[in-house]
Amino acid sequence: MFADTAVWIKLALAAVVAFILSFAMTPIVKSFAVKIGAMDVPTEKRRVHDHPIPRMGGLAIFIGFLLSVVLFADITTQVQGILFGAIIIVVVGAVDDIVSLRAVVKLLGQIAAAVVAVCHGGIIEFFMNPNIFSGSEYIALELLSIPITIIWIVGVTNAVNLIDGLDGLACGVSAIASLTMFVVALLVSEGNVAIILAALMGACVGFLPYNFNPAKIFMGDTGALLLGDNWAYVDQEGRLLTDFLYEEAGPFRDGIALVRSGGQLQAISERGRILFTADAGRGLAFSGGVTVLQEEEDGA
What is the model's pTM? Predict the structure, then answer.
């Protein structure tokens, strides 16, 4: 925790400013989306709405988040990577909300944003050792650091995008997750990460009133990719949740769903759809508790 009152004031201001900006900008972004044709027209059976709804609402989240971080966070080299990567991912998402880019083009944009983070020092150098019987707590990635970092950022970015299928779902989950990580950041005294999370949380909450069912605007890929991208960066920079649970949570850490030797990654894709393809059933599968990482019993 922080004893300095100035830090607490910064944290509060970061959340409040991001909230106000996101809330105030959403109607403006909505009108802008209508003018440029960034509309979600329900032409497919998987759609749950019955009339065209503007998308690109993530632009309002981005504005609130960006300005709040610039005003209150310490702009280190890694934070610069977060912001530059966010700009790239928002541009990709905004273009997709207007003209529907091919999956491979979006993937290349996500990789470009990840490379920006890597170039600014945002590299995963160690993994927690999943072998609880080993004397070493961490595994050095060495030459694998850069490719694994890129895979991590792209993977988390798409994880959030995959749950953006119901009104308020992805944005609400991101707000709750940001609050959780914000508390953990406070407990481990990661002030700068806490400010970034406060800004992200405030921006999400500011957008939610317009996104609850029935939604007046969707955040689109602009928002979904932005939230996932930021989550990958923030967790990578602070390694907050995993380190906190591993070091502090003691009896509970063995219950964490980590990928262990013998673990099996299950593809969540009924009907043979690829993960970059939208699917009305997939959001329900995630919210219904489908196990993504399955842990098997260790052999004798």
Answer: 0.76
